Amino acid sequence: MSFTRFYDPDATRHGLPTWPWGHAPPxxxxxxxxxxxxxxxxxxxxxxxxxxxxxRAPPGARGVRExxxxxIADAKPKRAPTPAVLASLARAMRARRxxxxxxxxxxxxxxxxxxxxxxCAFDTEVDPNDLEDxx
Length: 135
Ligand SMILES: [Zn+2]
Fold this sequence. Notes:
By secondary structure, the protein is of the alpha+beta class. The protein has 4 helices and 6 strands. The strands form 2 sheets. It has a 4-stranded mixed sheet. Strands 3-6 form a two-stranded antiparallel ribbon.
């Protein structure tokens, strides 16, 4: 039942050419499979999909999960982050480790539920081992 239900390579029943789990043609792969080869879809439209029954299907999907398939031939190499992107990410992560109240920078991200470090939230002492070395 499941094989015929999801076997539709000519897209007569589903919106896209569709294969059951494990039966997609080898020249079509998922985004994750592209990434494992160091590739990205690169703006191409999905060329098909894989569908399968799963208990982990999202609500409303009626027990069916799906993954879009992309052509390997039209994929592009993954882009390496530029130094500016890496610097921006480093600043963002540092902001998550810095308490807005006492301005100390910790070795871990502060809990968003507190909005400040535990020492400020609970009026306790800061463990010096939790502080990032001042650069
Ligand atoms: Zn603080």
